[in-house]
Amino acid sequence: MNASAGRLSLWLLLTPFLLWIVLLVLVPHLQMLRVSFQVRESWDTLAWGLEQYQNFFTESYYWRTFVRTGVMSLFTTFLTLLIAFPIAWYIARLARGRAKGLLFLACLVPFWASELVRTYGWMILLRESGLFSSWLQALGWADGPVEMLYNDVAVIIGLVYNGLLFMVVPLVTTLDGMDENLVEAGYDLGGNHLTVLREVVVPWAMPGIVSGCIVVFMLTLGSYLTPILMGGKDSAWFTEQIFTQFITRFNWEQGAALGVLLLVLSSLIVWLGLKLSGQSLRKVMG
Amino acid sequence: MGIESDLFCSNLVRRFGSNAAVDHVSLDVPAGTFFSILGPSGCGKTTLLRLLAGFDRPDEGDIHIRGARMNDVPPNRRPVNMVFQHLALFPTMSVGDNIGYGLKRQKVPAAERRTRIARVLEQVGLPGMENRNPGELSGGQRQRVALARCLVLEPTLLLLDEPLGALDLKLREQMKIELKHLQKAFGTTFVYITHDQSEAMVMSDQVAVMKDGRFDQVAPPEELYREPATPFVAGFVGDNNRLTGELVAVQDGLAELRLDDGSMVRGRLGQSSPPIGERADLFIRPESLVLGGDALRPDYSALRASVTATLFDGANSRLEADSAGQTLYARLPQDGSAPRLREGAGVQLAWDPMLARVFAPGAV
């Protein structure tokens, strides 16, 4: 194979990737960035300006929802980590042979259904006429139907459930590669459960923890169905506002500005997380 | 000696299913001893070490360390530290933090911690290496860090699980000697497990030869070599020739064997002697075999053999010979007095019967 043929095959291999990056990532985002700085003066005249961004900061409903979405996403990510770590530990270190595969499959199975179906599943359990409510009544712990949907707790339950797999997988991968002797050495040199976890296991699993957290945080921040369906009217989520601007209000300029702000927020928090944990994106994403 | 020793175990048993990996093992290791447990892989030595470290519990028997019963004490509360086979240095910590980990757990203040880390690093020959990462060190240096990490805690007992296995030959020879010197310098009691008999012989004060979960013999290296108690020890420790024949007579502790080709040989009777008329094995070391006829004394036992090959290996050069279908190795003299031996040449191999051992046939 000569040099020009080699170059041709390289380009052919790169083409799908480049098309994807340019057409589906770069162009739409640049377009959105452009639209976000356009101010509509009348139905056919446009001017450049920062009006949409000013709206965001002056209209407290926008930035409050924004902060709320960020904080709740961080909390959801943290909660997912707390729940996923013991599961991953069990799958990676304690389960053997067939049990290991089955447990992994059990984590995967819910993801064969769409997010919509999974969320409805939770709604069946949590709603006023749902399973949990009727059980509570049957056990005599509640006098009437209990509404467990349409509050922040319900939203977080749904979001944690959706993120769990994406936290478990990277954690299992890193914990699987850890030498059993490291844990034993941790105990042998005088450590208790807590110190071994803090000084030996967590530092080792850090790349997995960070990559899991990044994925779950991004998914949560950008999720739309779960907060809408399980949060009800009072539980505002930032993606919902972007949707409203684009679809209901037909205000693409404002929607684009909010979209850009969401992108900036998520990038900023991921960057901060990497800095704080002393990890680099290259190390975390392998 | 006794229950107040640094390590005293009585009738330890650890079963996995119906198989006893450790089968009624008793041992007594006085303070300051370098004690080795030598055995082939699968003999239960790692299981025994894990019982001592506390990662596993014995089904029967007691472990005492300086008189205190350790059976129910978790590993982090035992005055015992372990150097793992693959060292298990914490990859996320610097050398200094690796060594400081145990001190931190003992709540040693930071300033004292620093001086103790610096001191122990100097003792193992790695001064000023605190801030290096274990990944940047050579195999021998990592070895020393693993030792320092344990020794800085001044344990009563240091367990070593074949830590030299991963090193190349040259470095292993060097570390063997260094380990022995370090043990003497620190005065800590070492319990070292290995399948490499040379490691056990060079370093130890006492060696226990382990087979199928039991100790065959516990003795200083030289006694193990010269006075093996069982055919397994005779075959496992050092090189040995084995001749199989029929026991025909016993006189003054000397046994006479008739080999399959009819030649008669003699050797001292070991502890497990077969009855007369049964099969028996005679063990004779390569260096105990004398070549040629002129040095032969009347009380020596002798055998005709034909040369198969001469194996030159410096100070360890040997002659391979065949006698009635049994292969024998004899050490070639190092003063150049060895006769030039061609392949197929006839040769007389003789030995002092007092240096040969006769046992009932056993697994080797």
TrEMBL record, chain A:
Pfam families: BPD_transp_1. It is a multi-pass membrane protein. GO terms for biological process: transmembrane transport. Keywords: Cell membrane, Membrane, Transmembrane, Transmembrane helix, Transport. It comes from the Bacteria. SUPFAM superfamilies: MetI-like (SSF161098). Coiled coil: none annotated. Residues 66-273 form the ABC transmembrane type-1 domain. The chain crosses the membrane at residues 71-91, 103-125, 153-172, 204-225, 256-274. InterPro entries: MetI-like, MetI-like_sf. It is found in: Cell membrane. One of its GO terms (cellular component) is plasma membrane. Belongs to the binding-protein-dependent transport system permease family. CysTW subfamily. This is Spermidine/putrescine transport system permease protein.
UniProtKB/TrEMBL annotation, chain B:
The keyword Nucleotide-binding applies. The keyword Methyltransferase does not apply. Gene3D superfamilies: 2.40.50.100, P-loop containing nucleotide triphosphate hydrolases. Pfam families: ABC_tran, TOBE_2. SUPFAM superfamilies: MOP-like, P-loop containing nucleoside triphosphate hydrolases. Residues 7-237 form the ABC transporter domain. Keywords: ATP-binding, Nucleotide-binding, Transport. GO terms for biological process: quaternary ammonium group transport. GO terms for molecular function: ATP binding; ATP hydrolysis activity; transmembrane transporter activity. GO terms for cellular component: ATP-binding cassette (ABC) transporter complex. Coiled coil: none annotated. This is Spermidine/putrescine transport system ATP-binding protein.
